[in-house]
Amino acid sequence: MKDLRDVIAPYADSVLDPGERARAAAFRRAADRDGYRVAHVGLRMLLGGYLGIAPAEVPLVRLPCPVCRAPHGRPAVHGAALHFSLSRSGGLCLLAFAATPVGTDVERIPAGDLVTDLGAALHPREAAELAACPPERLPAAFARAWTRKEAYLKGLGTGLGRDLHMDHLGTSPLAPAQVPGWAVDDVAVAEGYAAAVAVEASRELTRGRE
User: Fold this and answer.
1) Residues 6 or more apart from 147 whose CB is under 8 A from it?
2) Statement to judge: residues 47 and 109 lie in one domain
3) Which of 66, 106, 122, 148 might form a disulfide with 196, Cβ 3.0–4.6 angstroms?
4) By residue range, what is the domain housing residue 54?
5) pLDDT of 47-83, one tens digit each?
6) Do 134 and 36 lie in a common domain?
């Protein structure tokens, strides 16, 4: 079976724009360069398919950051109502597309010492949930909270520029805690990883809940 890198590689130079090619070339590790190219060529191909244009012609832009208004907010397609999000970790890539703002995140389940270092940065209720978690379940619980939170923050367009203490997404293996105006769900991925997606509710759905 052909490796996906071999399938994508012939398209990278003709599909990616100069900025994307420069960012790919800046990675020191070949695996990181390959992962970036596969993810971004795949993204452009799917966007092109949805929009009915050539992948190389998809006009990608960065929206203003909601916090500082600088142009490093959520990536978007200029002039299109289609929203998307991309996340990579290790050998996995996760893409999400929606009619409203969307964010997604996939991460390797971390080692226990990293959980100890980062757990205190989360919402106080999440930190308390982690503190009560049995040690053998702690890394997976942290990964659930982290991916849910990062997916939501990417959907907002702030990324990690928003204080991680502010929003409670929870660590429960049953379902994420919900935040007003958004649908947040876990995504089934390969063993050893966690993933989540957050989609802004449409006005019609929001009105229907009132």
Assistant:
1) 105, 106, 107, 186, 194, 195, 196
2) no
3) 148
4) 4-58
5) 999 999 999 999 999 988 887 888 878 899 999 999 9
6) no
